[in-house]
Fold these 2 entries.
Entry 1:
Amino acid sequence: MIVMGIMYGKKIRRVKMKNRKKIHDDWETPKYLLDELCGEFGNMFDPCPLNPKCDGLKIPWTKVNFINPPYNRKDKEAFIRKAYEESKKGKTCVMLLPVSTSTKIFHEIIYPNAEIRFIKGRVKFKGYNTKGDLVENKCGQHDSMLVIFRGKK
Ligand SMILES: C[S@@+](CC[C@H](N)C(=O)[O-])C[C@H]1O[C@@H](n2cnc3c(N)ncnc32)[C@H](O)[C@@H]1O
């Protein structure tokens, strides 16, 4: 079923239902925030880039990693668990996540094991909105936090 169009320049491309999840999951981290984090943590590997060539959940990560995971619950939780597991192998994982402090994963994995930094103000993401327009200043409908699993061995 065709449900919406995406604007690429002046052309409208129709997008199928299965791609709605992709649109929802593709919000890009703003450059200012990445620059700030690279200043603090150095070069970081991104296991879930915009156009992934492989499954970031199935590969070993590097010494320092930055993860802004897809926001659907299943994938987001899988990346949080993977980041925690990688930290136990000595790798540092910096995650940009929507604030959600009542969840099981927050209480069982994040809160006891990570440094949490609540971000002041709403992060402005770049991506396609539900009308199919490319926007660069989309404020999420949620607050964001940095969740840092420091490498421990
Ligand atoms: C919120 S976007 C973030 C993109 C980029 N990391 C950034 O920070 O700008 C999440 C991305 O994860 C990618 N992704 C989803 N599942 C993945 C997987 N199993 N392995 C690698 N990448 C994946 C999607 O392509 C999506 O673009």
Note: Residues 25-29, 46, 48-50, 52, 55-57, 68-70, 75 surround S-adenosylmethionine (CB under 6 Å).
Entry 2:
Amino acid sequence: MRRAALFLEEEADDIIRCGLCPRRCAIPSGSLGACGVRGNKNGKGIVPLYGHITALALDPIEKKPLFHFRPGSMILSAGFAGCNLRCPFCQNWHISQPASGGGDVPGKHMLPGDLISAALHEDSSMIAYTYSEPLVHAEFLLDCMTLARHHGIANVLVTNGCANAEPAREILSLTDAANIDLKCFSADTYAKILGGVVSNGNDISVFETVLDFIRLACSMDVHVEVTTLVVPDLNDTVEELDSCVDFIASIDKKIPWHLSAYHPDYHWNAPPTDPAFIKEIKNRAAKKLAFVYAGNIAGDGNNTFCPHCEAVLIRRRGYQTDISGLAAPADGEKFFRCARCGGETPVKW
Ligand code: SF4
Ligand code: SF4
């Protein structure tokens, strides 16, 4: 059990410097960093919200969303409090932004062993760290992920990808699958609208950090899917979304990209994303990416097809998933086979 605070270094005058994310908060004694999670007590780094679980639910893995990792399975999903970004359309603002109206976020204290027991009790072979931002809870993640691996439980991260290289590498080394947000393709938007301000003169951009996080996860053999919420007046230009596509394709054309339609929430009042625009972007992206999915809109456009014979591998309707087009991987293989042609699919067990 680790418990001790990590990535929090003592500086002069009782200041603690947090190296977990590019904000690199300088935290005075008696205060918390910008995420509201990591702090300074009498000149010592502390993580007072270690094991503070704000939500616990058994979800279809498609809800994360992950479409190419253990499809049709249920996953125990644990939520935390706090976040290092300030997205004005955050759908989980009551737990991610305690300082801006949420107050003390209700929850229950769970040690990593408690979460593992809950997963075993629910017969879930996976745990998702999700809902607000898990990365700012690095200590709990590292403890729980290590224990989960010991019990044969897979670790799934649902994240904004905003962590510096060293902690990112440690956490990703224990991560089996991740859905990573690419919220836009603009350093300015990340800094000025999404709250990714780097206020200490450090010139590392939050945007570049997120791009590096996605690249790093892919290079470490984590199963990666990327999500972009298409938000009117934020990122909804063809040019910007094309840039997201080009970036993903530059890593691997087979990375699934989830386009998601926005609905007004928290401080963002623009009307919901036009479904026709999502479909247009999906069609454009499909020329460069092999798997593009549209979330939060009606219609049956989210099936997965065999790259060899074009048979339907996975048929989806809402969160109902029919995987009869898949054949189980052979011994020693990581990927399902196509039930029709026998070819290897990009769907991972
Ligand atoms: S916002 Fe980032 S740098 Fe600041 S305390 Fe939280 S994780 Fe550390
Ligand atoms: S990164 Fe996610 S949890 Fe954090 S504010 Fe943005 S939408 Fe909310």
Note: The chain has one domain: 50-302.
